[in-house]
Amino acid sequence: MTGQVLRRFILMGPPGSGKGTQGAILSEKLGINTYSAGELLREATKSGSKEGEKIKKIIDRGDMVPPKMIVNRIVEKIQEPENLKGYILDGFPRTLDQAKRFDKILNKRYFKKNNLGVQAVLLLQVPDDYVIERIIGRSQCATCGALYHEKFRPPKVFGICDACGGKEFTRRADDTYAVVQARLRNYRLVTAPIIPYYEEKGLIVCVDGTGPIDVVSEKIRKIVGY
Ligand SMILES: [Zn+2]
């Protein structure tokens, strides 16, 4: 890396690795947008386009949206004028098939000529135990929505919200050990095979995702070069 600031990249990592948080920080610092496939699909279903209608039907049926449709949404997005200065893809591609399809398009002359290709894949690495601890301890104030974690961010006084004094806390129903285990297993099975693929292309940059948010974002800042 020759002093150039990276502006087009993929954020990868298991659930609970802090991708969303770090993506938001990067978006703000670099003035570029972060996109996730799920969010783009939801947006398409509301657009009123023919393709959007098709996607809506598939989602309503509870079926998987075909990879080609997902990749097309992303490709469309990165060509929009406001995204020509850069983009962050959060959790896309999710499968090796998506990654290969995406690459095939990025390798076309138009995309090469306009420098739209991915410059780096930032891989946030966190051990499973860490993810489980991070997710399972989460809670939220039922009154004001303030976020807490029993170990990493407890209220100053046990059982009382710092922000509003509320005494009731809720947890997300899917923040359980079994659900987190299943998501981790799915990540290893479906998403992790992308890593060697991008490694071969020299795009993978590993980041230790453990530790406080600002420590991790500082590591990322150095890699991205802003
Ligand atoms: Zn509160």
Report on the structure:
It contains ten helices and eight strands. It has a domain at 8-126 and 193-224: Rossmann fold (3-Layer(aba) Sandwich). The strands form two sheets. Strands 2-3-1-4-8 form a five-stranded parallel sheet. Strands 6-5-7 form a three-stranded antiparallel sheet. Helix 2 (37-47) packs across helix 4 and helix 7 crosses helix 8. The longest helix has 15 residues, at 177-191. A hairpin with a 5-residue loop joins strand 5 and strand 6 (147-149). The chain has helices at 19-30, 37-47, 50-61, 67-78, 96-106, 109-113, 128-136, 177-191, 194-200, 213-224, and strands at residues 8-12, 33-35, 87-90, 120-125, 138-141, 147-149, 169-170, 204-208. The chain is α/β, with parallel strands linked by helices. Zinc ion binds at residues 141, 143-144, 146, 161, 163-164, 166.
Q: What is the strand and helix layout of this fold?
A:
Blueprint (H helix, E strand, L loop, with lengths): L7 E5 L6 H12 L2 E3 L1 H11 L2 H12 L5 H12 L8 E4 L5 H11 L2 H5 L6 E6 L2 H9 L1 E4 L5 E3 L19 E2 L6 H15 L2 H7 L3 E5 L4 H12 L2
Parallel strand pairs: 1-3, 1-4, 2-3, 4-8
Antiparallel strand pairs: 5-6, 5-7
Helix pairs in contact: 1-10, 2-3, 2-4, 4-5, 7-8
Bound molecules: zinc ion (ZN).
The site of zinc ion (ZN) has 8 residues, from loops.
